[in-house]
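Final report, Chapter 2: Outcomes

The project's central promise was a pipeline that accepts a single protein chain and returns its three-dimensional structure in a standardized token representation, suitable for archiving and comparison. That pipeline is now operational. To close this chapter, we reproduce one record exactly as it appears in the project archive, with the input sequence first and the structure output second.
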Amino acid sequence: MSVDKPVPKPTPETQPYWDGALAAELRIQRCTPCREFYFYPRLFCPRCMSADVQWVTVSGRARLHSYVINHRAAPGFEADAPYVIAIVELEEGPRMMANLVGVEPRPEMLTLDMDLEVAFAQRGDLRLPVFRPASGSVS
């Protein structure tokens, strides 16, 4: 029996993030008063608690902070196993979790601090940000 991959459900708070992904743009929030970038989407700045926040398209450049190679896939992901689930640190500062693509899921291929860039994978009606080794980077 085949199970489809789950598709995220945008909320009013996260819709600008998903709209950006559909446009192949990585959008995160930035606080207007303290200028802090942050991720995950929320209605207020986690640093200064201001509600004066805006959505900003960021560079999409990142570094590999941490990862796990998933060998026992969840339902719907069996054909993808093994695959890499990563914590990436965006050039702008925040960290986010995403799949790492375009590199073999073996520890010797996954160097911490390796340069990454955002790409987008279609899932249902949405596009999901994923990361891959940056063009021109040497692993």
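Archive annotation: The mean pLDDT is 93.
This record, like all others produced under the grant, will remain available to the consortium after the project formally closes.
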